[in-house]
Design a protein that fits this description.
Elements lengths: L6 H5 L7 H15 L8 H17 L2 H10 L2 H4 L16 H8 L27 E7 L1 H6 L1 E12 L14 E3 L8 E8 L2 E8 L8 E3 L11 E12 L8 E4 L15 E7 L6 E3 L2 E9 H6 L1 E7 L2 E7 L8 E4 L15 E8 L6 H12 L1 H4 L9 H9 L1
Parallel strand pairs: 1-9, 11-15
Antiparallel strand pairs: 2-7, 3-6, 4-5, 8-9, 10-11, 12-13, 14-15
Helix pairs in contact: 2-3
Amino acid sequence: MAEKRDYYEVLGVEKNANADEIKKAYRKAAIKYHPDKNPGDKEAEERFKEAAEAYDVLSNPDKRARYDQFGHAGMNGGAAGGGFGGGFGGFSMEDIFSQFGDIFGGRFGGGFGGGQSRGSQVNRGSDIRVKIRLTLEEIATGTTKKLKVNKNITCPSCSGSGAKEGSSHTTCTNCNGSGYVVQVQNTFFGRMQSQTVCPVCGGEGRVIKDKCSKCSGEGYIKGSEVVEINIPAGVGEGMMLTVVGKGNAARHGGINGDLLVVFEEEPHPELIRDGNNLIYNLCVPVTTAILGGDVEVPTVGGKAKINIAQGTHAGKTLRLRGKGLPSANGYGTGDLLVVIDIAIPTSLTSEERKAVEQLSKMTNFAKKGKCEKQNIFERMRNFFN
């Protein structure tokens, strides 16, 4: 399967393009590749779908934010749910016309889509929100999770149509298949005309002759599905991944809703996360701080050996580059920051006390030590820089 193109590249806009620029770019691309202008041209049809996919994401602030952060992985969860590719996430041409036809001032004209009117409504299933708890190790490498999701699924008896086997749909006579009816009212200002959803067909433009007995004509039943979710490395607490088409099934074979996966982090017993950096508070014996030496510190999935220099002060920070977490957008990896603290004994034996008293009388211990000149504010600034 060909690699997806960048959505901004598809529409030919910059990453800081505003909503109007994105809308104009989509309109231009859709007109260029419209099936009515390119009959029988499969490449033009795919470009048309590709432009609709890009507009669907970039015109939605939430989807656009996820795309900017995660790329295509943030739109479809990797292999899970399929996303839009290879057929616009299950959308037909009619679905695209119905969803984005307003950009062209109403119905997206032309004789494409099997005769159904452009104005008819396409049902969409509701979204489902779930939470997944991740360990720091899973966040560092990325992982795959399988979830059993209780939801509305497509009725197996009628394949989602809502019609009894052997039966079919007929054009709604109340709206003549348009999905809408026009109402005219006499008011003080004259005759006012308004367009509303057809009450007979619910905006679909067609009605069922004989309803499916299993789903009572709805096209879906209660059920469950095991969904596999590919989680990219570097995600964080509160971030959300959309698995397209894995939400509730829609009425009468419409568009499925999405599965919205919200991430939670399990606290690590030793490491603290700060963005893509990790912080470890290392407490060393006073003798190690004085004499120096090698110690081991935990990392994600292992350990690393570091050297404590002779005469190390409390508060000193050592940086292990590249030992943090990868960025969710794939650019760079954070560091592991080891903050030194010194363990001072709170009780001494008589022998230990005598030894310390002897040390206190020696030259290098008796004279005033040389402390770091940085104040606490400078230390904090250097720490975060």
